[in-house]
Design goal:
- The protein contains nine helices and eight strands.
- It has 282 residues and is an alpha/beta fold.
- The protein has an eight-stranded parallel beta sheet with strand order 1-2-3-4-5-6-7-8, with helices on both faces.
- Helix 5 packs parallel to helix 6.
- It is globular.
- The protein starts with 11 loop residues before the first strand and ends with a helix.
Length: 282
């Protein structure tokens, strides 16, 4: 049973992961957790925090092995999921995923030396099928690669959710051209941005030597810019539990404290939750 939250909101955590230590990993997986974080663990954490719903993100280190995440989403009406799929995935498989609680696909492009060609036939068909299912594309891309990636994906007409504050570069912060292009894209009407994992904004390899105060300062500035120029109706909060790579310094309580700093007004937090409910659970 969900307990009452002193926040009033969030009632939706829009970014978390579940896994076991024996899940298959892709060849270039950036991390290999030596512990399990099961859907039961996650639901228990939501209950402890008074958070009502959760969205499980496709697990990048396992590539297109979505079976565990989808099985988790099927366990409870409180959960939804995104999946990482091959561009030639059969449309019947995608429809089955939808019936099992999947609401979108994920492109995890951070750290990728070569980006997909979203204009090739396989990707054009996949993106059209995403539109037909009324799904979204959940994408993580950093720095100067943000703008061309946005342009290619927006051309397909899909809804987009940009991960991790749209990844402002640590050296440039909110002046980062990629971050500014993400704000411009939101204002065109089919893009949302996640206020999630501000602790990761020190750079893609910062987990090797975390500097949370620096990352949190970047996140605070980005949140303020997004609240002013985008507004909570186009923003989605996520914890990024169980904080892979940052287990020694991040907790769910700290993630909620960060949200209070980014959105100190309860009405703003309520608006964030309303936006998430409409987007993932309507």
């Amino acid at each position: 049973m969900v307990v009452s939250s002193d926040l009033g909101a969030p009632i939706v955590d829009c970014h978390a992961h579940v896994f076991t230590r024996d899940l298959p990993l892709i060849a270039d997986a950036w991390n290999a957790p030596a512990y399990d974080y099961t859907p039961q663990d996650y639901l228990a954490e939501l209950d402890r925090q008074g958070v009502h719903f959760g969205v499980l993100s496709g697990l990048s280190i396992s590539g297109t092995y979505n079976e565990y995440t989808i099985a988790a989403a099927k366990l409870s009406p409180r959960l939804r999921a995104t999946a990482i799929v091959a561009p030639d995935t059969d449309p019947h498989v995608l429809r089955r995923m939808r019936d099992d609680g999947v609401v979108g696909i994920r492109f995890q492009l951070v750290r990728k030396a070569v980006l997909p060609d979203f204009a090739d036939e396989a990707h054009r068909l996949l993106l059209r099928r995403v539109r037909d299912l009324d799904w979204h594309v959940h994408v993580a891309i950093e720095g100067e690669r943000m703008q061309p990636t946005l342009a290619a994906l927006e051309a397909s007409g899909v809804k987009l959710v940009l991960d991790h504050f749209a990844h402002p570069e640590p050296e440039k912060g909110i002046a980062c051209p990629g971050f500014q292009s993400a704000i411009d894209a939101v204002q065109r009407g089919k893009v949302w941005i996640k206020l999630a994992a501000g602790f990761r904004l020190g750079g893609p390899d910062a987990w090797r030597d975390p500097d949370l105060p620096r990352a949190e300062a970047i996140a605070q500035a980005a949140a303020a810019e997004l609240m002013t120029r985008v507004g909570p109706e186009r923003l989605l909060w996520g914890s990024d539990a169980p904080f892979v790579g940052y287990e020694g310094c991040m907790t769910y309580d700290r993630a909620l404290a960060q949200l209070r700093a980014w959105a100190p007004d309860p009405a703003t937090r309520r608006a964030l939750s309303d936006a998430a409910l409409r987007f993932y659970f309507a």
